[in-house]
Amino acid sequence: MGYLILQAEGRFDINTVMAGILVLTAFALALDGLVGRIERRLMTWQPKAGESEKL
Question: TM segments (predicted)?
Answer without folding.
Answer: 12-35
